[in-house]
Amino acid sequence: MSEVWIFSAVSGWKQAAVVEPAKALEMMTASTKSAILLGALATDYQAKVFNGANLVTIGPVAKRLDLKKVSIQDPYETIKDGYDTLAFLGFDFWFLNQLFQHLKHFSKTKTISLERFYHPNANYSLKTMSEEEWLKAFGGKR
């Protein structure tokens, strides 16, 4: 079990399993229908690493992507498709904590946190890492 970054975020008896970054990405490729959600806090390098993957993102990150590899879709239609695995990177801790709590209780979708801090409400999460260790796992600089 990894150390929880914010103690009030402890979710009870069912907490995230800790995985290594390579294992998390392997789980994404092995799933039937998966997507990576990049938030506004994702670095330029991280946007480039995941460019070409099945991404769901917002305007500030979308500007940094190679448009030749991007398929623009209506987000509401995309959500209706029903993903079996979702990975998250580049979001505020508090926002993801609430989102993971909701998905854990009301959805069968598996969630993977690729964030620097352990998220107990996800199904799978990276351990809490120093910024250098986390950047090394995904490459690039902030």
Textual characterization of the structure:
- This protein has 142 residues and is an alpha/beta fold.
- It has a single domain (14-138), classed as TPP-binding domain (Rossmann fold, 3-Layer(aba) Sandwich).
- The chain is built from 6 helices and 6 strands, in the order βαβαβααβαββα.
- It has a 6-stranded parallel beta sheet, sandwiched between helices.
- Helix 2 links the parallel strand 2 and strand 3 (55-57).
- The relative contact order is 0.24.
Short note summarizing the structure:
Helix content is 34%, strand content 15%. By secondary structure, the protein is α/β, with parallel strands linked by helices. The chain has a single domain, classed as 3-Layer(aba) Sandwich (Rossmann fold).
Strand line-up in the sheet with most strands: 1-6-5-4-2-3
Shape: globular
Q: Could you name the CATH homologous superfamily?
A: TPP-binding domain
Please report the distance between the alpha carbons of the first and last residues: 27 Å
Helical segment tally?
6
Global Rg: 14 Å
Give helix % range.
25-40%
Task: Annotate the secondary structure layout.
Blueprint: E1 17-18, H1 21-30, E2 34-38, H2 44-49, E3 55-57, H3 59-62, H4 75-80, E4 85-89, H5 93-106, E5 110-113, E6 124-125, H6 131-138
Parallel strand pairs: 1-6, 2-3, 2-4, 4-5, 5-6
Any descriptors?
15% strand; 6 helices; 142 residues; Rossmann fold; six-stranded parallel β-sheet; alpha/beta
